[in-house]
Prior knowledge:
Elements: H1 12-52, H2 59-77, H3 84-105, H4 108-115, H5 120-129, H6 132-137, H7 140-155, H8 159-163, H9 167-189, H10 200-223, H11 233-279, H12 284-287, H13 309-314
Helix pairs in contact: 1-2, 1-4, 2-3, 3-9, 3-11, 7-9, 7-10, 10-11
Keywords: Cell membrane, Membrane, Transmembrane, Transmembrane helix
Transmembrane segments: 20-43, 63-81, 93-113, 134-155, 167-188, 200-222, 242-263
Subcellular location: Cell membrane
Amino acid sequence: MTHPPHEHGPGPAGGGADQLPALLPVLLPVLAVGAAVAAALVYLAAAGRLRRRGDAWPHRRDAYFAIGGAALAAAVIAPPPGGAFTAHMAQHLLAGMIAPLLLVCARPLTLALRVLRPSRPRRVLLTVAHSRAATVLMFAPVAAVLDMGGLWALYRTPLLAATHHQPLLHALVHLHVVAAGVLFTAAICQLDPVRRRWSLWLRGSTLLVAGAAHAILAKTLYTAPPPGTGFAVADLQAGAQLMYYGGDLVELALAAVLAYQWYTATGRAHARLHRRHAARPATAGQAIGGWPWRPRSVRRDTHGHLPTPAAQSSGGLHGSGSRQPVTDHRTAP
């Protein structure tokens, strides 16, 4: 709906409303970069506060979060080289796969819970993290459907073509790509404290199926463009190859996280088993002068001493060859 121009020019309210759609392509990237920088600064400040308090927090996690925030900012403001679809696919890999992996490995929820003192904000954060809705979303198959299903809807429907003409829809789609990527990565890795930890078998199987769905989508894009788009064939194939091989690399990194979790869990289980064996009391045979277990037929002499090997070989307990020791073939108690 258009309004007739004012006699002395458009007023501030009308002019702002008319100019807002034109300013969205500029405002939204600035807001996204500002949010990424602010989140990185808050994380680094919280990590520094934790260390000043005397608690340990690995510096590599600071690097993970800072690089993840930089990847998000680069995906918004730094268009990669190549054709339009190849550049779009590079942004998808940065914002939807690489940055989420780095951010999740930084364990921001764990940092927040350790920094916050017992107070209302900490209780609210725990309530949200352990809520039933968060438990359902952190179920790996659900997170995979939200992530991969969103990608299939973006590239196999006219949605991608519509985002080229609607800046707000374009921003919402990219926000979903980032949020779904973080959710899927967090559900697979489960590094932060959650209400329920799913098994490595379930998470590994989900990662395998999701990786197959991502690879199949890339292969379909190699042969057919998204509906309603007119990308060049060479650009389309280059973007599809970037999606295929780049996605494989990120999924291998996720598999490495799962393998490390399996390795550490197995090591802890072996350590617990070793401690249990070490804590068991010594057997009766080991408690008597360091002797190993002996058959029950070996009896003490009249003075209460165990027979020497020479006495046993000469026959009997008292050296007389007329009496042979009785052999007991029963197993140890």
